[in-house]
From TrEMBL:
InterPro entries linked to this entry: CdaR_GGDEF, Homeodomain-like_sf, HTH_AraC, HTH_AraC-typ_CS, Tscrpt_reg_AraC-type_HTH
Domain of life: Bacteria
UniProt-recorded name of the protein: HTH araC/xylS-type domain-containing protein
Keywords, alphabetical: DNA-binding, Membrane, Transcription, Transcription regulation, Transmembrane, Transmembrane helix
SMART domains: HTH_ARAC
Transmembrane spans: 16-38, 268-286
All residue ranges annotated as the HTH araC/xylS-type domain in the record: 646-745
Pfam families membership: GGDEF_2 (PF17853), HTH_18 (PF12833)
Lineage: Bacteria, Bacillati, Bacillota, Bacilli, Bacillales
Gene3D superfamilies: 6.10.340.10, Homeodomain-like
Length: 750
């Protein structure tokens, strides 16, 4: 009985909860550290902000008071209207000495709103002039500042500190500026300018009202307050001093105590973090020791198992428990990997073996057997039709010479992968295996739901796409033969045979890259036996040294193109040609036979080893025979008897129809002994006199039979035979047919 067990993962939850608590402990530490860092940054930012604000405030105050100072100094130096008050010559003229200077003082107060009061003091008679009245010094209520100024030795005094004085008749806190006239001697009198401390406070208030968090405190040189806000104590203070007025400014922010606390804590935050770290470290050690017990239990079990099985999963001197566990797991994984690799290799060879047996027809399979086999090979099995095609690497010898074995395997793998991808993109499944070194068999399996044309058309399109891809990406050519579609798996070997047969007839069809089996089922193509006869004629022409071999060669290939010959049949034809040439030329002198062996037989074998089209084969063979003919002609020309034999051949060609032509007749015609004539013919022509004469007569008879309607008896007499029976026997011996049968064959072709 089998069941499904749900593990609660108690150990996992225990570890998670243990370390979550540590995490929750560490988070406050991180937050405190962050707070300290932010507090320190905020404090530095606040200090810098206070400094900039205080500098701006002091600069504004300095500018206000400096403008008043400059205005007074400028009037003393440049304006005679106000200075008329001090002139003795105008003292009796009230308008110039009183009215105009008073008006000027009013103008100055209007120009500088910060000025609370301004008045002139004249030494000569102790008179004080205000914008609104004239007093003697004894009657003037703010005489104290005048008397103090008269007692000073310095003529260039700064603004005075905050003092108690009078603004009109009211007491007030004033800040005064005293200037002597003239500026550099001070003998005439004084100009005194008063600014209320209250006005300065209002000015500062207007400048700081936009920053409610700031608190300002301003004191003069002697520490008297000029402007002090509430809650001045407890600020995060920064203090600055004016170079012109000599005033001190203390600037701070609201809640400065909080900044002070954070600043104090920031000095010790490293110690706080270290304490938290040590506490967390101790906590982790304790939790780990507690949760390690299940791991120790696993290690003990592995040790016990190793001792029982007498295996060494680990070294006994090792104290790393996780290495022990890892060693056990690695051993299990290694075994699993070995089993998986063995399974894949076994599956690969099983697939390859089954594929070969299936395509060769060695295993006829019923539908149920087919389904079981494909399932065991982990392949799909439900298809409507099958089409087999064969992909051949063209000029395989050049392919192996160009690429290393590794590159050959890689290129074959690429070609197989491209076939599969193109098939899948067309909605079909394909199974491809290399049956030989140069041929890839592809079984295209088309499902029932596939749309499109006929199965053969779909595979033809696949082959065309493969050819185009190969031309674009690879540096070698391929050809594809396609069989007919079949509906049952046990018929696939028929489609495979048709694909191979179609590929075999590729040269006869002009070497198209894709050949379907239906293309070789053409009734208008016929077979001829004449190529064999032309081979015999070619051999005889080469043996005798005549140029007639070119005509026989051309007629042979004309017959080949007129029929439908497979590659194997063409290979057999070339083998027959080599055999017959060897037979005909073996009787020639040794130097001629050696030329055939070196220039003919070896080159003929090389030319026939690799070709793709009939035209290519014809070109290669013609080049071989031309070189052989030229070489044999050179050898014959060097022989002393060559000219004599050629003359005899010409004589026989003219008098072959003479029934009395014989060896004796020829010896008398050329004045040479009959045995010498026979020997020369044998050496130069490779055949005796009688056989050569018979060949000439039969060749002429063939022309007459093919080109005329004369009777066999008349032709017998015309070619030099006296008796028809002798002619018929000679004709059949050389041609293989009787003259009558030969005429029927020629007339049938016509």
């Amino acid at each position: 009985m089998t069941g499904t067990y749900s593990l609660k993962k108690t150990w996992f939850h225990r570890w998670v909860l243990s370390y979550i608590s540590i995490l929750l402990f560490i988070i406050p530490l991180i937050m405190i550290t962050l707070l300290m860092a932010l507090g320190d940054v905020s404090r530095k930012t606040a200090v810098e902000s206070n400094r900039l604000f205080a500098e701006q405030l002091l600069q504004s105050l300095d500018n206000e008071f400096r403008q008043i100072d400059n205005l007074v100094s400028g009037e003393i130096a440049a304006d005679d209207t106000m200075m008329d008050f001090f002139k003795k010559s105008l003292r009796e003229d009230r308008f110039y000495s009183m009215v105009q200077p008073g008006t000027k003082l009013k103008t100055m107060m209007t120009a500088m709103p910060l000025i609370d009061s301004i008045y002139l003091y004249r030494h000569a008679d102790g008179t004080v002039l205000t914008p609104y009245a004239v007093f003697s010094i004894e009657q003037f209520n703010d005489q104290k500042v005048i008397l103090e100024a008269l007692g000073q030795l310095s003529l260039n005094r700064p603004w005075m500190t905050v003092r108690k004085g009078f603004s009109g008749d009211e007491p007030a806190e004033l800040i005064s500026l005293v200037r002597y006239t003239p500026l550099f001697t001070g003998t005439d009198g004084l100009i005194i300018v008063n600014v209320r401390a209250e006005s300065v406070a209002k000015l500062v208030k207007s400048m700081t009202s936009s920053i409610p968090s700031n608190r300002i405190a301003i004191h003069d040189r002697d520490g008297h307050p000029v402007y002090v806000e509430e809650h001045e104590d407890g600020f995060l203070k920064t203090e600055y001093r004016s170079d012109y007025l000599g005033w001190n400014v203390r600037n701070g922010v609201v809640n400065g105590n909080l900044f002070r606390i954070v600043s104090t804590l920031s000095k010790y935050w490293i110690l706080v973090c270290l304490a938290f770290f040590l506490l967390g470290l101790v906590w982790i050690v304790l939790v780990t020791r507690k949760n390690y017990k299940p791991v120790q239990s696993i290690v003990d079990r592995i040790r016990y198992f190793a001792e029982q099985k007498q295996t060494e999963l680990f070294k006994k001197e090792s104290d790393d428990e996780f290495k022990i566990i890892g060693s056990a797991l690695e051993s299990l994984l290694d075994q699993a990997e070995v089993f998986q690799r063995q399974h894949e290799e076994n599956l690969y060879y099983r697939r390859k073996t089954f594929f070969a047996e299936w395509l060769e027809g060695e295993r006829p399979l019923k539908p149920e057997e087919w389904r079981r086999e494909m399932e065991s090979l982990e392949l799909p099995h439900s298809f409507a039709e099958f089409v087999v095609c064969t992909v051949k690497i063209n000029k395989y010898h050049s392919f192996t010479d160009t690429y290393s074995r590794h590159d050959q395997s890689l290129l074959k793998f690429v070609l197989t992968s491209v076939v599969k991808e193109l098939s899948e993109s067309g909605g079909a499944f394909c199974w491809a295996e290399w049956m030989t070194n140069d041929r890839l068999a592809v079984a295209v399996m088309i499902p029932e739901t596939a749309a499109g044309g006929s199965p053969e058309e779909r595979v033809k399109q696949l082959a065309d796409d493969l050819i185009r891809w190969t031309v674009q990406h690879l540096h070698f050519g391929i050809s594809v033969g396609i069989g007919s579609a079949v509906r049952r798996a046990e018929q696939v070997h028929e489609s495979y045979g048709e694909a191979r047969e179609a590929l075999a007839y590729q040269p006869a069809l002009g070497a198209p890259p894709v050949i379907g089996y239906w293309q070789i089922q053409t009734p208008d193509k016929h077979r001829s036996i004449n190529p064999l006869q032309h081979i015999r004629e070619l051999a005889v022409a080469l043996r005798t040294g005549g140029a007639e071999w070119t005509g026989s060669f051309d007629r042979m290939f004309a017959e080949v193109r007129g029929g439908l010959y497979s590659r194997d049949e063409m290979t057999n034809l070339i083998s027959y040609m080599a055999f017959f040439l060897q037979k005909e030329l073996m009787e020639l002198p040794s130097e001629l036979h050696e030329a055939w062996t070196r220039e003919g037989a070896a080159k003929l074998e090389e030319a026939a080893a690799e070709w793709e089209t009939i035209d290519e084969l014809e070109h290669k063979l013609r080049a071989v025979f031309e070189r052989l003919s030229d070489r044999m002609s050179d050898i014959r020309s060097a022989r002393s008897s060559y000219k004599l034999v050629q003359d005899m051949r010409a004589y026989l060609g003219e008098h072959y129809d003479n029934p009395d032509l014989s060896l004796q007749h020829l010896s008398e015609a050329f004045g040479i002994h009959g045995k010498t004539v026979s020997r020369l013919f044998k050496e130069e022509m490779g055949v005796n006199f009688i056989d050569y004469l018979s060949q000439i007569r039969i060749e002429r008879a063939k022309e007459l039979i093919a080109q005329s309607d004369e009777s066999i008896q008349d032709i017998t007499l015309r070619v030099g035979y006296l008796h028809p029976n002798t002619f018929i026997r000679s004709f059949k011996k050389q041609v293989g047919l009787t003259p009558g049968d030969y005429r029927k064959q020629v007339q049938g072709k016509a």
